[in-house]
Amino acid sequence: MAAKNIVIVGLGVGGFSALMAAKKISPTSHITIVERRNCDMFSSCGLPFVIEGIIPDPENLKHTLPTGSMGVEKLLLHELRSIDTGNKVIEVDDLATGTQKEIVYDSLILATGSEPFIPPIPGARELLGRGVYTLSSPEDTYTILEAASDKKHAVVMGAGPIGLEVAVALKAVGMDVVVVEMLEWAFPRAIDKDMASAVSNVLKSLGIRSMMGKAVEKVVGEDHIKAVEVGGETLDADLLVAASGVRADLSIVRDAGIEIGRFGITTNMGMMTNVKDIFAAGDSVEVTNPLSHRPWSSQLANSAFRQGTVAGTNAAGGYATYDGSLTTFVSVVGDLEVAATGFNSHFASMYGFNVVSGKAKGKTRPDWYPGGEDISVKVLADSSTGKLLGAQAVGRGAAARINVVAVALKSGLTVHELAEVELAYCPAVSETYDVLTKACDFAVRKLNK
Amino acid sequence: MAAKNIVIVGLGVGGFSALMAAKKISPTSHITIVERRNCDMFSSCGLPFVIEGIIPDPENLKHTLPTGSMGVEKLLLHELRSIDTGNKVIEVDDLATGTQKEIVYDSLILATGSEPFIPPIPGARELLGRGVYTLSSPEDTYTILEAASDKKHAVVMGAGPIGLEVAVALKAVGMDVVVVEMLEWAFPRAIDKDMASAVSNVLKSLGIRSMMGKAVEKVVGEDHIKAVEVGGETLDADLLVAASGVRADLSIVRDAGIEIGRFGITTNMGMMTNVKDIFAAGDSVEVTNPLSHRPWSSQLANSAFRQGTVAGTNAAGGYATYDGSLTTFVSVVGDLEVAATGFNSHFASMYGFNVVSGKAKGKTRPDWYPGGEDISVKVLADSSTGKLLGAQAVGRGAAARINVVAVALKSGLTVHELAEVELAYCPAVSETYDVLTKACDFAVRKLNK
């Protein structure tokens, strides 16, 4: 096929995988990368672990692409300014010089990602950078660690993966930490309240206070944060980390006439937008949920990776499809692994399913083999068809079980069919009757009633 | 439903799960267990780890069932003597008294398991118990440890899970160990030669000699083993552990007119034999391979567990089906986890498939996150349809990947579809681009050529 002129805006996970896929499909294509940061890729999921000290240096998270040898033009410190879809050209700002330049494309891939979102709470945006921080770049870890260094009181807003990982990290570096979550339990979008109790227990055992079902109502301070008001209570605060979700800035995309749905840029299954030859991947796109067949959001690195691969393949003239996201995720809170895939009970009900669940507690190894650890699994199925709707797991090996369910969801298996799958057994690794199978059997028993 | 008189012969994994399932379906049924051992259940997969010292006492492997409170009659030291299928009665020997008794059944479940098989090698059977041993009961661990205590040279025959786990165990207690395997590599029925090289490396690093593609030709000794002859070489031997497979003794079953196939007792999908109301489960049954749709052998605890559940459910008047075994397994050799599911290349070819494979090496965590370990995965797919045929993995998390593939095989997924599944990512647990997905992508690339 003819070599194309491919422009990728954004060098996150989606942009990176798009680049690799495009190069694979069409090695002679000319690829230009536009990235407003002053560095190549970095692994944002590692940021909390830098604060915690597990990763000694945030520079370790940065990865320089050998773009020269790849025949890729890399424009760092360049930011997308506008897209002229008719002439197939974008305008970018050179942030170093303040000048603009135009770049012509045959295929354009938008992988601009997202930014942390700070809710419109009185004082929060005003004190941004002065005690109020977000965590989205390697530099943010320096800022937060600096701010934490001689201070005592930290508040983390949001009990999703980033919020909880940051809370544990700040505790580890010696702060008193309070986690505030508007919804009623940890990982509220991914797991159920009963499963979240294990997370509460870990936070408690680490000495982290959690305030669930409560909102930060006000951030107090003049030059610098002093306190936050939460549920009528005033908490001392030297530091507030806002981890209450991310948003994509899509104004340029919208101005270019590219369609935007409820959750982000809409694409077809080839990750192409409504505008020919413009593709999108990563946090800024809306995906299809394979369970509800409805629009959905998946701001996860694994989704961005797959979407980028599909976008890059198609942008380069190949053929690939993306079949939606089950938002399969894992996070680690202290020593507790928490993982989920598909719907939790809340979303399953919201999308009209009658849910039957099965829940089991077990060990990673038989009682008689040393070193076994606790693990709990909950599976959700549709009450009339038995089709799996999702699963949640907490404890060592949670992700391993959840990945198994992710494949079952992809395959449209019933919970009965999943229960039939013989899982690998050796006492040094697993139980004969795995907790996942047990959870499935419990759900099957309810279905049979 | 009317309470039944259920008799279960054999209290291994299959017999135990049959018992539990039958009790669940029909709590009022009268269940009799016939077991020739003098103990309740024990976990045979733990035996090598007793020798190694990881499990301090073989008694830990024994589990006493609360049969009294369950309303179950348990006849230990009783052995099946004959089955009268017409009158629905079995005769058993009371091994303690030497007397016989008859037991009437409505449903009979045969779960008699298997015994280690000692090949007809000159000297091997003659010296059984005098330096030549098998490992199938808690008592065998005493015998082997006793025999090992003041001796130096051990030979292990067979490089399957038991053989290799025993080899590592004997090395750990201070012996010089040679593993002899007739086929050309370790785990020859489950993995390919290229994947087995990791096993060879571990054995080497532990100081265990492996002689692959060689047979024990003779066991030398008069009162006690002195040496073995292997491939023209004479090896000093104070101890030989035969781990060259297991066989079921089916003479009583055959005499009763119960059909036996190439691999064991044949059953329908309800685990019922050709004789009405007689069920079978565990090592002594022949299963269907879901990939070849042909008879197959699965002498694994996870298969026995599922088969027993199905047999027990149906024997008690319920309804359950067994859909065959992918012989999904995991073993641990030293620190190396080895797992596989479905066919390896050898069996895939033998059953007429043209195989395309994808193989990837990776880490369990990103490079920049401490503590990552090596893992390699190989997936096999049918070259014309892309349908998955099997997978093999070595390294930490091998079983976790293999379980994912087991579900994909159960679902009839193509390798392409498996590659699309987004696996859970968090740097403390996994890579964004998991080695399993990578292996699938490599196979897809070959298929697309």
In a nutshell, what does this entry contain?
2 copies of one chain form a homodimer. By secondary structure, chain A is α/β, with parallel strands linked by helices. Helices cover 27% and strands 29% of the residues of chain A.
Q: Specify the number of helices of chain A.
A: 12
- Low-pLDDT regions of chain A: none
Mean pLDDT of chain A: 95
Total count of strands of chain A: 27
CATH C-level name of the largest domain in chain A: Alpha Beta
In spatial order, strands of the major sheet of chain A run 5-2-1-9-20
Structural class of chain A: alpha/beta
Q: How many domains make up the coordinates of chain A?
A: 3
Write down the Rg of chain A.
Answer: 23 Å
**Largest two-chain interface:** A-B, 61 and 61 residues
Distance between the termini of chain A: 59 Å
Task: Write the CATH architecture name of the largest domain in chain A.
Answer: 3-Layer(bba) Sandwich
Task: Say what the CATH topology of the largest domain in chain A is.
Answer: FAD/NAD(P)-binding domain
- Fraction in beta strands of chain A: 25-35%
Report the sheet with the most strands of chain A, covering strand number, pairing sense and barrel closure: 5 strands, parallel
Shape of chain A: globular
Helix content of chain A: 25-40%
- Subunit organisation of the chains: homodimer
The CATH superfamily of the largest domain in chain A turns out to be FAD/NAD(P)-binding domain
